[in-house]
Amino acid sequence: EAQVTQNPRYLITVTGKKLTVTCSQNMNHEYMSWYRQDPGLGLRQIYYSMNVEVTDKGDVPEGYKVSRKEKRNFPLILESPSPNQTSLYFCASSPLETDTQYFGPGTRLTVL
Amino acid sequence: AQSVTQLGSHVSVSEGALVLLRCNYSSSVPPYLFWYVQYPNQGLQLLLKYTSAATLVKGINGFEAEFKKSETSFHLTKPSAHMSDAAEYFCAVRFSGGYNKLIFGAGTRLAVHP
Question: I need a surface site. Which of A85, A103, B59, B78 has the fewest CB within 10 A?
Fold first, then answer.
């Protein structure tokens, strides 16, 4: 089944404790992206990647890092999480030649 | 700045009534337009998209949307609401030169009551 998977689905952590949220897609898509969803703000792009080893900042990249060492994986790294990063995070992927993005199920992160 | 506005953060309708969710965008060049739906505790699912073909776009679950360039709008409608339509709906836009980047509206939560 074609899908985007994220792990973990739920995470509660404390300020300053490094964490990684994994994202994997099995559709051989070139484009991958991370969004955060906050009430009243919709989804905002954090980082995106056009292909392996090609990443760039989105609209709200502060406090986040990403890497794209393999085509299928696009982990989101929070080196020193803070409470304002408490949010619902979505990974998405798409082929470069289409506009339809496929979303993962989301990761709800709480930083205390 | 390029933006997407969804009028009404909450919409409530009766089962069987018309659903109308509003979306306006700011751009002089017609972009690509999308509606996504998010059911509780799930990711986003594409309902429909406009990519410069027919201005009336039909999607899944009986939804459709009409692109109106003069009004810079892409409102989502469904003639008869069903209880299972209760969800949050997001309008998203890919502007010219945005290359796969989507800009989302704030979302509209649809409630359907008996």
Answer: B59
